[in-house]
Description:
By secondary structure, the chain is mainly α. Helices cover 75% and strands 0% of the residues.
Amino acid sequence: MTGLNNIFQHTYGEGKIPDSATGKYLIQQLGEVNYIPEKSERDYEHAVLKMYTEYYELMEKRKARDAEKGKTDES
C-alpha cells in the first residue's frame, strides 16, 4: 500500500496506541492515498492494525533500548 510506512511513522509520532480507534484512523489515512473497497474496509482495518501493532511494538523496544543505552553512556 502506498504511504503505509509514512502513515505508521506519523501515527506513532502522535502517540497513538494500537486499538480499534487507531485502526479506523489508519484506514481513513490510507484511504486518502489508496483505493480501499468499502466492503473490504473491515478486513483492511484488521490487517493494517495488526501490522501497526507489530510496528508499534518494535518502536517501543527501540525506544526502551535507546533509553537504556543512554543511561549506560552517562555512567
